[in-house]
Write a structure and sequence with these properties.
Keywords: Signal. The chain is an alpha/beta fold and about 325 residues long. Helices cover about 45% and strands about 20% of the residues. The strands form three sheets. A five-stranded mixed sheet has the order 2-1-3-10-4, sandwiched between helices. The longest helix has about 35 residues, at about 250-285.
Length: about 325
C-alpha cells in the first residue's frame, strides 16, 4: 500500500512536471533522499542539482525530495528500477541486495585508512562497482561519505578485541555482521535500530555499532558512555540513477552527470566531516570515553575467519583493493 501511494504521488508529479516542461524548457528530474534537508547527503544532493543545472545550461533541473517524502531507501531503489523516478541517494547496504559485487565493501577492516578508501571508491574499482548496478536497472554515479562504524557500549572501555569478550552488541541483520562481532569475541544481537536506546538502558544489550554522528544524534551517547573508534566498516552512500533514465542521455550528458556527482562529493564529504567533528566534540563534552585505535592489526587478525568464509566470492575486487594498501 505504501509503494502504491508513492506511485500515485509520482504520477501526479509527472503530470505536473510534464505540463510545466516543453521541448525548449528544462527537463525536471526527481532525486529521492530520505534524510533531512541539512544532513550531509542532502547537502551533496543540492550541490549535485546546482551543478547539473549549471553544466547543462539549464536543460536539466533536479528536484530534490528530502525527508523520505518518496519512501524509504529500498522503495527509492524499486522506483528507479521501474523508471518512476530518475535519481536517488541510497546507502550501499540495501544496494548489495541488487548487486552482489558491492558486497566486498561490507568486509570488516577492508580499508587501511580514509585515503585508501577514497582511492578505491574514486578509482577504477569504484567505477566498476558503480557500473555493475546496471544489471539491476540502475546506474551508480558516485559515492558519498557515511563515515566509519565504531563499537560503543555501556559497560567498559574497549581498547582491544579481548575487551569486547562477553559484551552483547546489536548488529544489522546479516550473517556477515553477526559473524564479525562473534569473531571479535562479543555476542551479536540483531534488532531494529530504533530499539537500541531502550535496549541498552534496560540491559537487554550492552552496546551497538554505528558511525559517530548516528551515535550522537540518536542520543545513544547518553546510555553508552564508551565508544571505540575502530572503524570496522565504511560502507558508503551511493548517488544512483535509474537505468531507464540513464539510457535516454547522450554520451556527453552522461559524462556531465558523472562529473557533477563526483564534484558534489567534495561538498558532501566536507559536510560529513563537520558533522562528525561536532558529534565527537559533544560526546566528549558529555564526559564520554572516546578510545582511538591507532593500530587495527589485532582487530584485522581477529576477523580473518570472515575473509576465509566470504572473501572468495569477492576475490577479484578484494585483491585489487588490497593491492592499493600503501
Amino acid at each position: 500500500m505504501k509503494t502504491k501511494g508513492v506511485l500515485m504521488l509520482l504520477l501526479a508529479l509527472t503530470i505536473f512536471l510534464t505540463a510545466c516542461n516543453s521541448s525548449e524548457e528544462a527537463q525536471t528530474i526527481i532525486l529521492a533522499e530520505n534524510q533531512v534537508d541539512d544532513y550531509p547527503t542532502s547537502v551533496g544532493d543540492y550541490e549535485f542539482a546546482r551543478l547539473i543545472e549549471e553544466k547543462t545550461n539549464g536543460r536539466y533541473k533536479v528536484e530534490v525530495y528530502t525527508g523520505g517524502q518518496l519512501g524509504d531507501e529500498k522503495s527509492a531503489i524499486e522506483l528507479m528500477q521501474v523508471g518512476a523516478i530518475e535519481l536517488a541517494r541510497v546507502n550501499g547496504s540495501p544496494l548489495m541486495e541488487f548487486s552482489e559485487s558491492l558486497g566486498v565493501l561490507s568486509l570488516p577492516y577492508l580499508f587501511s585508512d580514509d585515503e585508501h578508501k577514497w582511492e578505491v571508491l574514486n578509482g577504477d574499482i569504484g567505477e566498476t562497482l558503480l557500473d555493475g548496478l546496471s544489471e539491476s536497472n540502475l546506474q551508480g554515479l558516485a559515492f558519498y561519505d557515511s563515515g566509519n562504524r565504531h563499537f560503543y557500549n555501556a559497560i567498559r572501555e574497549v581498547k582491544s578485541p579481548e575487551d569486547l569478550a562477553g559484551l552483547k552488541i546489536r548488529v544489522q541483520q546479516s550473517s556477515l555482521n553477526i559473524d564479525m562481532v562473534e569473531a571479535l569475541g562479543a555476542s551479536a544481537t540483531a534488532m531494529s535500530y530504533g530499539e537500541v536506546y531502550s535496549a541498552i538502558q534496560t540491559g537487554v544489550i550492552d552496546g551497538a555499532e554505528n558511525n559517530f554522528p548516528s551515535y550522537y544524534t540518536t542520543n545513544h551517547f547518553e546510555v553508552a558512555k564508551y565508544i571505540t573508534m575502530d572503524g570496522h566498516s565504511g560502507v558508503p552512500e551511493v548517488l544512483t540513477a535509474s537505468k531507464a533514465f540513464w539510457d535516454t542521455l547522450s554520451d556527453e550528458d552522461k559524462e556531465i552527470f558523472k562529473e557533477a556527482a563526483l564534484e558534489s562529493q567534495v561538498v558532501q564529504r566536507k559536510a560529513w566531516a563537520e558533522l562528525e567533528e561536532e558529534s565527537l566534540r559533544e560526546a566528549k563534552n558529555a564526559g564520554n570515553t572516546v578510545t582511538v585505535i591507532d593500530d587495527v592489526t589485532p582487530w584485522q587478525e581477529a576477523v580473518q575467519p570472515i575473509y576465509t568464509k566470504y572473501g572468495e566470492q569477492f576475490k577479484e575486487n578484494l585483491e585489487k583493493i588490497q593491492s592499493l594498501v600503501k
